[in-house]
Design a protein that fits this description.
It contains eight helices and seven strands. With about 260 residues, the protein is α/β, with parallel strands linked by helices. It has a seven-stranded parallel sheet with strand order 3-2-1-4-5-6-7, with helices on both faces.
């Protein structure tokens, strides 16, 4: 399938590395102008130089801290005073692991700001131009945990579920403008985040990280972790005209690990 995103402007969160960077590279290779968002300036500068510019694209980056909602909202407000986007990929770092019995109300508030408020505020700013042009794509990087909660990830389980429910409601409200809203339910991908979670679990269980990763692979029908390029291909499709009749969905990309329908 030939996907052409020439003249489309994309804003991608958490895109200095991992899944976010893979998405940025894939959209750029299809002709989109890409704005990267992340905390690390040096990583962003390196990442933006790796993006395809063969179609004369104009790529840029925005230094933001999703963990500081007030600072983030000020920065993103300023960005949208000068920029309009057609494709928004809401993606942030995950909150700290932990069990429900270990978390206090402030932990939930922090996770709410990170996973929920940042996405809603950015989307609300993007929707104005999308409505005016009767075209837009909003793609939320979520998790399989919204269908089957994962052990020791109560903050992620709770707040990601809230976001996908909001996204479903929004998809109904903006469908008449040819704006699609979709969630990707992420399984186990070979990323720094997965290694961090495996390291934390290894410490608790007194195992090696390799042993923990092998335990995870054993429950995945495909017996391997996903590749970030595979993830990026799905996002590129959802960002394209070819996906125009797909909205309000939760699409797992997990090698078959979800057992629910």
């Amino acid at each position: 399938m030939n996907i052409d995103l020439t003249d489309k402007n994309a804003l991608i969160g958490g895109s200095s590395k991992g899944i976010g960077l893979a998405i940025a590279k894939r959209l750029a290779s299809s002709g989109a102008n890409v704005t990267l968002m992340a905390r690390n300036e040096s990583a962003l500068r390196k990442a933006v130089n790796e993006l395809d510019q063969s179609k004369g694209q104009n790529h840029q980056f925005l230094i933001v801290n999703f963990s500081d909602y007030k600072g983030f909202s000020n920065q993103i407000d300023e960005y949208f005073k000068k920029n309009n986007i057609d494709i928004l990929v809401n993606n942030t770092q995950g909150p700290p692991p932990g069990k429900a019995t270990e978390k206090e109300i402030n932990d939930y508030q922090t996770a709410f700001d990170l996973l929920f408020k940042c996405a809603i505020h950015t989307t609300s700013l993007a929707l104005g131009n999308m409505k005016n042009q009767s075209w837009g794509r909003v793609i939320n990087v979520s998790s399989i945990s919204v269908k089957e909660p994962l052990n020791n990830l109560v903050l992620s389980n709770s707040l990601r579920a809230a976001l996908v429910t909001w996204a479903k409601s929004l998809s109904i409200d903006v469908a008449e403008f040819n704006i699609t809203i979709n969630n990707i339910l992420t399984g186990f991908f070979d990323t720094e985040r997965l290694n961090q979670l495996s390291a934390a679990k290894a410490k608790l269980q007194r195992k090696t990280i390799s042993e923990i990763n092998n335990d995870i692979k054993s429950i995945i029908p495909m017996k391997r972790f996903g590749k970030v390029e595979e993830y990026a291909n799905l996002v590129c499709f959802l960002a394209s005209e070819q996906s125009a009749y797909i909205t309000g969905t939760n699409i797992p990309i997990d090698g078959g690990v979800l057992r629910s329908i």
